Amino acid sequence: MPAKKLFPNLAKSEPKGNVFTSIFDDNLAKQQEKSDVVNSVMKKTDTTSVLGPKPKVDSLNIVEKPSHFGGSFLKLTVFLWFLLLIGSYLTMGASFNPIGLNIKVESDSTVESLKQAQAELNTNNYTVAYEYLDSFSFIADSYLNKKNQYESVYTTSIEKNSLESDIEDLYEDLALALSMAQDKLDEETSPVGIEIRSDGTLTSEYVFKDATISYIEGKLAESDDPALKGALALFRNGAFVKELIAMDTSSEMSDETIESLVSKLSSITEDNFTIISKIKSERQEWSDIITEIDEITKQVDPLYNSAIESDISYSSYNFDSKNKTISLDGVTKTDDTRNFTLIANLLDALEESTLFMDVTERAFNKSSSGDEGYEAQFRVEFKIQEGEDSRDKQVSIAEELEETEEEEVKVSVDEPADEPVSEE
Amino acid sequence: MDKIKNKIETFLALFLLLGLGVFGYIKVAAYLDYYNYKNDLTDSLISINESIRDMSDEISSATLTYQDTTSDKNSGLSDIFPVSEDLTSLTRAFDEFEVSNNFSNSPFFISSISYGKSSASDDSQYRILPIQMSIESSEDNFYKFLEYIETSGNLDSGIRLMSIGNVSIDLEEDEDQENFMSYNLDLNAYFQN
Q: Which of A178, A164, B109, A168 is nearest to A155 (CA)?
């Protein structure tokens, strides 16, 4: 028989948890049954546990509720998606703007306002530019006329002195008018740094240009303002505007440049001055033609128009502007018999001129006039040259003669020639 | 079964939430982009409207100048490019040139002027009045008259717009009158159609 323990095992180990966590602890209950001290105590008080055996869940008939977290979460997410899509549509997708939140519609509206404002600004700039250019054109007319008078050989020195100061003043005025027009034309025609978001592939520059043209056309439908017409014509002629802007008014402009500008301005605006300018440009300046014929004749016959009787003399000129033809009647008088050579040289010289082409003379007649030498009548017919003529590129008579002289010198140095090459 | 469904729903919800985040980010970025764009447009609009206001004085000044110029041009236009043939003014102008250039040492004498029947130009933009003239003059005055015709049509000079159609010059020298030329000119004077 085992010896009875002096001190019974009052507590084998510290019970885990507390009374609340261990109220249904069966093991602890069994241990308590084994504890003599506790048993004795319990016998004196109560033989049963505080709560009794742990009730079985099944026996309570409690049904475990299924978790709905996933479903709720999904519903919330879908709801948020819905909100976002609605918000996105109302702020950027919709074509209406009920509460002023649609940023796209607001932007589009601002773009329209901006196009209208820029069109108005462009119209103002181009109208002012046209008005200055009109002034330029008017001053240029007077300037060019006075310049012509000044350069005319028929103007006296007193008249020239008076014209000189007028020309200087007029030039300053026209340069100022052109410079002011340039300032206006040089302004940006579309807002700086703004790139319009359009559905198509149109550039901002095109969008604002189109808006400006529509704006001016709308204004013209209301009133037939010539300045607005001019502004529209300028706006449609970008190349001419670029040419105008590129002009340097600080340096001296030639008369040809001024004339060309006036003519181009007149051609784009299409008024009575356009017609005048067109007639002027088509007008043949016969004095230049006669001067050229004189120069060419002098080249062939150095005595022409001099105090000494020349070999070539003309009896009549006939100029026809409609057909742009010229016919010259004349006679060559020589001591030797080289009348035909002289006429041939004249024909070549006329052909080589950049003013004439298709020079023809097919019949040559010569007669002897006794002691006075030989005489040959001629009638040369040719046209006023339009465009380029390959025959212009040939060496001129004068150069040809010089070259021949040089060759003669060389020939005489190298080996004596039997006959001279030159006709002279 | 419920647990699996729950898990699937949770997973799907998470996936949608992720998509929502990405989509929301894109949309917010796009909105902010448009917002800045609209602000730029508004700033530009304000600036342009200011420029328009600033131009008012310049427009008034340029318009006044333009009106003056137009008035001068229109009055000059009736001289150089009239609305009718205006033969009398043209005849007087030729006579005036003759008087001011006819001198004993350098004569200029118009022996005849014949006006033809006017016709419309090919493009019907203007009308042409043909003129035939017979003139005897010195060589200097011949060139001077050519210059007169060739520089006509300027507002400044007020000479009727003309051109030379045909020149026929007889250069046979008269022993008594050296450099004396007689010539026939076919001129065209222009007027509005």
A: A164
- Quote the pLDDT of residue A201: 73
Secondary structure (DSSP) of A260-308: HHHHHHHHHH-SHHHHHHHHHHH---HHHHHHHHHHHHHHH-TTTTSSS
What residues in A contact B14, CB-CB < 8 Å? 73, 77
Q: Are A10 and A35 in contact (CB under 8 A)?
A: yes
Q: Would you say residue A196 lies in a domain?
A: yes
Same domain, yes or no: A258 and A350: no
A303's tokens: 């005595």
* Cβ-Cβ contacts under 8 Å, A305 against chain B: none
Residues A243 and A349 in one domain: no
Class of domain B87-192: alpha beta
- Secondary structure of chain B in the HEC alphabet? CHHHHHHHHHHHHHHHHHHHHHHHHHHHHHHHHHHHHHHHHHHHHHHHHHHHHHCHHHHHHHHHHHHHHHHHHHHHHHHHCCCCCCHHHHHHHHHHHHHHHCCCCCCEEEEEEEECCCEECCCCCEEEEEEEEEEEEEHHHHHHHHHHHHCCCCCCCCCCCEEEEEEEEECCCCCCCCCEEEEEEEEEEEEEC
Distances (CA, A) of A30 to A13, A18, A36, B132: 13, 17, 12, 151
Structural contact between residues A70 and A79, judged by C-beta atoms closer than 8 angstroms: no
Cβ distance A76 to B15 under 8 Å? no
What is the number of structural domains in chain A? 4
Percent above pLDDT 70 for chain A: 76
Phi, psi of B182 (to 5 degrees): -120, 135
Convert the pLDDT of each residue in B154-171 to its tens digit.
888 899 999 998 888 887
Q: Is B75 exposed, middle or buried (0-12, 13-18, 19+ CB in 10 A)?
A: exposed
Q: Give SS3 for A254.
A: coil
Domain boundaries, chain B: 2-76, 87-192
Q: What is the mean pLDDT of residues B17-39?
A: 92
List of chain A residues whose C-beta atoms are within 8 Å of the C-beta of residue B52:
117, 120-121, 124
Does A64 map to a domain?
no
Residue A131 predicted with pLDDT over 80: yes
Q: Do residues A136 and A278 share a domain? A: yes
Query: Which residue of chain A comes nearest to B5, CA vs CA?
Result: A70
Show the domain range for A306: 286-393
Phi-psi region of A81 (alpha: psi -120 to 50; beta: other; left: phi over 0): alpha
Residue B43 forms contact with A (CB below 8 Å): no
For A175, A208, A214, B179, the CA distances from A185, given in Å and listed in that order, are 15, 15, 19, 55
Rounded to whole angstroms, how far apart are CA atoms A337 and A339?
6
**Which of the four pLDDT bands, split at 50, 70 and 90, describes residue A270?**
confident
Distance (Å) from the alpha carbon of B103 to chain A's nearest alpha carbon? 14
Give the pLDDT of residue A403.
56
Chain B residue with Cα closest to A134? B66
**Residue A420 banded pLDDT, cuts 50, 70, 90:** very low
ipTM: 0.79
List the alpha helices (DSSP H) in A152-254: 157-185, 204-222, 226-236, 238-246
